[in-house]
Design brief:
single chain, 797 residues, alpha+beta, nine-stranded antiparallel sheet, eight-stranded antiparallel sheet, 14 helices, 30% strand
C-alpha cells in the first residue's frame, strides 16, 4: 500500500488538478463520501466493487439526482477510508479512489492498479468562449500514452478512436461509406484497452475529446447538466460489458422471430404488393418471419403525409385482414412510425388541441420545415404526449401489428429554440429516441404484458438497450465502402450495451447495382444480430426479386441463418442474462495483443465462431489470424487451423470464411419456413473434437420464444453440454436444467462429432452400445434425450 500511495503522490505532482481547487474537509453520509473543496463538493458513491460514481457540485448549484441511463440501485458496498496527512483513500474490495489533498488530485484504481485520474476535473470555461463548438463545462482526465480508446456511440473511424474530438449530437449521415464521424447514436461512454470504462451520466449535447491534442488527455464537454460520471472496472472485457449493462440495464430477450429473416424495402405501396411479396417467399421456400411497411402505409406520397399514423385506405383497404392473413402464414407485420406530425397531416389539429407537441418559448406548438414538410414534434417527455402517442400504437397493436420501426428519432431536425416538458431541445436531443423507446416498452408492459416488444430504432442513448431498442446503422450507402464500415459499428455498439446493432443488409442509399456486393453483405448478415435486407426502391432488397443465380446463393445463406437459430437464440439469452455482445472483437479473446486493438476485419460471433466478412470485390483469398486459445476448424470444409497462427485462406464465392473453435458445441436445426415451426424435438448437436481442448462446455437455451421474462418466471430449459477427452476416450455429458414452470419434452438428437481420425471401436450412450455412422472424419450418433434425464456419451478411439 505504501508503494501505491508513493506512486499516486508522484502522479499527482506530475498531473496536478485545477490549481485553484483546495481540499477542505470530508464526511461520510450513508454510503457516500462527500469531499468539500474550495469551489464545490465531490460526492463519491460505490454501486458495487467494480462501479463507482463521482459527482462534482459547483458552489451555488443545485444537485441534479435524475439519471437518464442508470437503472442499478447502489449496493451496500463495504468500504474503508484511510487517511494520511496528505491523502484520503476510499477503497472497496475492488475499486479504490485516492484523493490527494495538495495539490488536489483524484485517481481511480482497481485491485491496486491505476485506471484513470482527473486532470483538471470539472472546469467552467470563460463565458466569452461558450458555443456549441466549445461548450462551457468540461471534465478532464489523464490517460496513459499507450491505451486504445473505444466508445462514443456509433461512428466509422477505425476501432481505436483515440485522437478524435467527437460531437455528442445524434444526427443522421445519409449515404456514408468508410468514414462517418457523427451518426445516430452519441453515447457518452469511453472504454479503454486497460479494461475500464468511464460513463458521463448527462443527457445534454456536447463533445468527447479522446486525446485529439495528443497530450494524453480525455475531455468530456457539455453545455449544461450533471457533472457526474461512473468509473467501471472489469476482470475481462466480458466482465466489463456485463458490469456496464448492470449499471444501465440489460437488453430484454428478443422474441425468437426477431432472429429470422425480414422482408423490407422503401417501400410497399399497397396491400396487394405486401401479399404478393410474402407469397413469393413461400413459393420459393425462402424463410421469412416478418415484413416491414415503410411510410406508404399511411400516405401515397413521401412528402406531406407524415404524422397521419393511420392506414391509407385507398391502398390498404382491409389492413386487419392483411395482418391476419400474414399471421396465419407465420409472418409478423411491422410498421414505420415517426414522431413528426406535419401541419398537412390528418392528426395535426388533434395534436395541437391536445397539447402533445413540443413548443416555442411562449408555449405554442413549435413549427418548422424539413424534408418531409412543415412539422411539429411529439413531446415524448410530456405525460399527455406519451399517452396520446401510445394510444396510436395501442390501437394498431389491437389490429394485429407485431412490431415497430421508429425512424428519424435523433430527432432528425430539432431546432435549439424548441422546448419540451423535460427542457430545451439541446438538453434532451440525445435522449429523445431513448425516451420514445421507453414509452413503447412501458406501454407494452401495461397493456400487452404477454408480448415481447420489437422496437427497431435509429437513435438512442446510454442504456437504450434496457428498453428493448434494436438499433441499426442508418442510411449506409449501397457500396463496398458502406459494407466495410459495418463490422466496426456493430462491434463498437455491442461493447456499449447495444448488442443488436446491425445494418440494412445489401446497403440502403443509392442505385448502385452489384450482385456480388449484395451476396457478400447477406453472407455477413448470417453472423450479425438482425437479418434485415433493406434498400431504396431503385434496386430491390428482397432475394425473391433477384435473378435465379443470386437468389439461389442468398437462399442458402438465409437457410443457414435459420439452421443456426438454437445457437443464436442462446446468444440472445446470454446477452439478456450477462450483457455479453453477440459480436465480439478479437481483443476480447486476447486483451494484451496490441496487434488486435484496432482490428475489426475478423470478429467472434458468440464464443465459438470466428468470422471474416469479405468487404471488397473480387477477393479470392484473405489473411486471417486465428486466436491463440484454441485451434479452429473451417465451418464448411472442416480444415484445421492452428491456434495463434496467421494463414492465407482461399475464399469461396458461396460463403465468407467462418471457423469454429476446437471443443465447441454448436446446436442446429433443419431449415424451417419461419420460427412458428421452431422445435427442439429433433435437432443436431455438432461437437468439434480437438486434441488441444481436453475439456469444454456449451449450452442451449430454450423457452416459448414469445413471453416476456420466461427465464425469470422459470419457464425455460437449459441443456448443458460438457466434454472431457483423452487420446483414447471422449466423454460427453448432456444435462438438462428445467425451470419450475417449464414442461420439457423428449428430444431426438443427432450428435455429430467432427475431426475423428479413424473409426471408433465403440460408442455408448448411458452405458449401452449404440450404432453410429462415419462420414470421413465425422461421426454421427443418435441420442434420445428423455425429459428429466441426463445422458452420457462415451466414444472409444
Amino acid at each position: 500500500m505504501k508503494k501505491i500511495i508513493l506512486f499516486l503522490l508522484i502522479s499527482s505532482i506530475s498531473f496536478a488538478q485545477n490549481a485553484n481547487r483546495k481540499f477542505e474537509s470530508y464526511k461520510v453520509v450513508k454510503n457516500t463520501l462527500e469531499i468539500k473543496t474550495s469551489d464545490g463538493v465531490y460526492y463519491i458513491k460505490p454501486y458495487s466493487d467494480k462501479i463507482i460514481e463521482t459527482t462534482f457540485l459547483p458552489t451555488g448549484e443545485n444537485l441534479i439526482s435524475n439519471s437518464h441511463a442508470v437503472i442499478l440501485t447502489p449496493e451496500k458496498v463495504a468500504f474503508k477510508i484511510k487517511q494520511t496527512q496528505n491523502e484520503l483513500v476510499f477503497s472497496t474490495n475492488g475499486i479504490s479512489v485516492s484523493i490527494v489533498k495538495s495539490p488536489f488530485q483524484i485517481s481511480y484504481l482497481y485491485k491496486n492498479k491505476e485506471l484513470i485520474s482527473e486532470k483538471n476535473g470539472y472546469v467552467q470555461r470563460e463565458k466569452a468562449t461558450i458555443s456549441k463548438e466549445q461548450p462551457k463545462e468540461t471534465l478532464e482526465f489523464n490517460l496513459d500514452a499507450s491505451e486504445a480508446l473505444y466508445g462514443a456511440g456509433a461512428r466509422a473511424l477505425g476501432m481505436n478512436r483515440r485522437g478524435n474530438r467527437l460531437e455528442l449530437y445524434n444526427q443522421a449521415d445519409y449515404g456514408y461509406g468508410t468514414h462517418s464521424k457523427k451518426m445516430n447514436f452519441s453515447i457518452p461512454l469511453v472504454l479503454s484497452s486497460k479494461i475500464y470504462a468511464v460513463h458521463f451520466d448527462n443527457g445534454a449535447i456536447g463533445w468527447l475529446d479522446l486525446d485529439s491534442k495528443k497530450d494524453n488527455t480525455l475531455v468530456y464537454e457539455t453545455i449544461s447538466g450533471r457533472k457526474t460520471y461512473q468509473v467501471i472496472a472489469g476482470n475481462s472485457w466480458a466482465d466489463l460489458t456485463s458490469n456496464y449493462t448492470s449499471l444501465t440495464g440489460k437488453q430484454p430477450l428478443v422474441p425468437r422471430w426477431a432472429l429470422g429473416n425480414f422482408s423490407s424495402r422503401f417501400g410497399y405501396h399497397s396491400q396487394d404488393e405486401v401479399a404478393k411479396t410474402i407469397d413469393k417467399y413461400i413459393k420459393d421456400e425462402i424463410p421469412v418471419d416478418a415484413i416491414i411497411l415503410d411510410l406508404y402505409w399511411f400516405g401515397k406520397t413521401v412528402q406531406g403525409t407524415m404524422g397521419n399514423l393511420d392506414w391509407d385506405k385507398d391502398n390498404f383497404s382491409d389492413p386487419k385482414k392483411m395482418i391476419t392473413d400474414l399471421n396465419s402464414k407465420g409472418v409478423k407485420t411491422i410498421l414505420i412510425t415517426e414522431p413528426f406530425i406535419l401541419t398537412t397531416s390528418s392528426k395535426w389539429q388533434e395534436a395541437v388541441d391536445k397539447k402533445v407537441l413540443a413548443t416555442d418559448q411562449a408555449g405554442n406548438p413549435f413549427k418548422y420545415d424539413f424534408y418531409f414538410g412543415n412539422t411539429g414534434l411529439v413531446d415524448v417527455f410530456k405525460p399527455e404526449g406519451k399517452t396520446w402517442f401510445w394510444n396510436i400504437y395501442k390501437n394498431l397493436i389491437n389490429q394485429g401489428v407485431g412490431g415497430w420501426w421508429g425512424d428519424l428519432g435523433e430527432p432528425e431536425v430539432f431546432p435549439s429554440a424548441t422546448f419540451t416538458a423535460q427542457g430545451p431541445a439541446d438538453e434532451v436531443h440525445n435522449i429523445y429516441g431513448h425516451n420514445w423507446a421507453k414509452m413503447i416498452r412501458d406501454g407494452y408492459k401495461t397493456d400487452f404484458p404477454t408480448v415481447r416488444p420489437f422496437i427497431l430504432m435509429r437513435a438512442g442513448y446510454s442504456g437504450s438497450q434496457n428498453y428493448g431498442m434494436i438499433p441499426w446503422s442508418g442510411d449506409v450507402s449501397r457500396s463496398w465502402e458502406g459494407l466495410q464500415s459495418q463490422p466496426e459499428i456493430a462491434l463498437q455498439m455491442g461493447m456499449q450495451g447495444m448488442a443488436y446493432m446491425h445494418s440494412d443488409l445489401g446497403g440502403f442509399a443509392g442505385d448502385y447495382f452489384d450482385n456480388e456486393l449484395y451476396v457478400r453483405w447477406l453472407q455477413y448478415g448470417v453472423f450479425q444480430p438482425v437479418y434485415r435486407p433493406h434498400a431504396q426502391e431503385d434496386v430491390p432488397s428482397e432475394p425473391v426479386y433477384k435473378d435465379i443465380v443470386t437468389k439461389a446463393k442468398v437462399k442458402k445463406q438465409i437457410e443457414l441463418r435459420y439452421q443456426m437459430l438454437p445457437y443464436n437464440y442462446t446468444l440472445a439469452f446470454e446477452n439478456n442474462n450477462k450483457g455479453l455482445p453477440l459480436m465480439r472483437p478479437l481483443f476480447f479473446e486476447e486483451p494484451t495483443n496490441e496487434k488486435l486493438l484496432n482490428s475489426c476485419d475478423s470478429y467472434l460471433w458468440g464464443n465459438d465462431f470466428l468470422v471474416t466478412p469479405i468487404t471488397k470485390a473480387g477477393v479470392t483469398s484473405t489473411s486471417i489470424y486465428f486466436p491463440k486459445n484454441s485451434n479452429w476448424y473451417d465451418f464448411y470444409t472442416g480444415a484445421k487451423q492452428e491456434a495463434g497462427t496467421t494463414a492465407n485462406i482461399a475464399v469461396s464465392a458461396d460463403n465468407i470464411p467462418v471457423f469454429v473453435r476446437g471443443g465447441a458445441f454448436i446446436p442446429m436445426i433443419k431449415t424451417i419456413q419461419n420460427t412458428t415451426k421452431y422445435s427442439l424435438a429433433n435437432f443436431d448437436l455438432h461437437f468439434y473434437y480437438d486434441e488441444k481442448a481436453t475439456s469444454s462446455t456449451g449450452k442451449l437455451y430454450n423457452d416459448d420464444g414469445v413471453t416476456p421474462n420466461d427465464f425469470e418466471k422459470g419457464a425455460y430449459e437449459i441443456l448443458d453440454f460438457s466434454s472431457n477427452s483423452t487420446n483414447k476416450l471422449i466423454t460427453v455429458k448432456i444435462n438438462t436444467v428445467t425451470g419450475k414452470s417449464f414442461i420439457s419434452e423428449d428430444k431426438n438428437i443427432t450428435f455429430l462429432v467432427h475431426n475423428i481420425a479413424g473409426k471408433p471401436s465403440k460408442v455408448t450412450v448411458n452405458g449401452v452400445n449404440v450404432d453410429f455412422k462415419t462420414n470421413g472424419n465425422n461421426l454421427e450418433i443418435p441420442v434420445v434425450l428423455k425429459k428429466g434425464l441426463d445422458n452420457e456419451i462415451k466414444i472409444q478411439l
